[in-house]
Design brief:
Structural class: alpha+beta
Order of helices and strands: HEHEHEHEEEHEEEHEEEHHHHHH
CATH topology of the largest domain: Alpha-Beta Plaits
Shape: elongated
Low-confidence stretches: 299-305, 327-333
Strand order of the largest sheet: 2-3-1-11-12
Largest sheet: 5 strands, antiparallel
Number of strands: 12
Strand content: 15-25%
Amino acid sequence: MPAQWKVETVQDLKATISQYPVVGVINLFKMPSRQLQQMKRSLRDSAALKISRKNLIKLALEETSKENRKGLNELIKYIDGIQPALILTKMNPFKLYKILEKGKAKAPARAGDLAPYDITIPPGETPFTPGPVIGEFAKVGIITEVKGGKICISKETTVAKKGEPIRREVADILMKLGFEPMEIGLDLVAAYEDGLIFEKNVLKIDEQKIIGNIQQAYIEVINLAVSASIPNKISINLLVQKAFYEVRNLVLTAGLPTPALMKEIIEKTHGEMLALASSVGSKDKKALDEELIQRMSAQPVPIVPEKKEVKPEEKKEEEKKEEAVEGLASLFG
């Protein structure tokens, strides 16, 4: 028979799991106890953190999956190879991941830590005076020289590659230079919700990129609706405006005597007449009478609009109108 405390622990885990729709597996590897307690306090109102032995967590997940949470046992495969704990919440996995990432803090590297990225030391002056530290720099491949009584790094040097263990000598130099390449926090490995498993690489999203994609899709859908003349509550205004301009252009092109456009039709016809007269006159000036020649040579007097003080609210309104016109113009190419 298993020890009573183990049975009680599994039952407690199962009871807690049943209260929350989202169950996550986090890695506590090298998580300092002080920072862990701080994170537990900060998550008190939004999530529950359950720390237990690996085999007891597996057993609780397996039994809960069989009873009422189909697919929950898939989290078990993410527990091996880490120092696991369960985090349980009612918020969606993406929001949980974002909160945990924001809660991480920078920390110095220790010997044996895996480099999270290529750690590179830039050239420049250091706070150290000549001494034994020059030899320490040399041990990790950093070339130095002495200028103005200070040790200076001559060129950029990569002291650790991404994913490789950090050597003790490198960790010591990084600490002396004030580099903190590591992050301390709760590392969400995977999360379960409604029968689905969300891995870390899925939960890590670029919000600005997603928003940009949605905005671009919105614009493309509106363009399609307007081009295909599909009316909906968003495209209908644009379709009416598009139809108005198409009818207007048709009336002007065909010269139809429409009262609302008579002035523009006359101006267009007058301009075409002058253009035709100019073409004829370039070949035979005698073909034009004096009145027509004078009309062609007459220079219009430019009208200078009276300057008017524009109020801030009027200026904003005009800017909005200009943006609307530009947006409409972009739709029709």
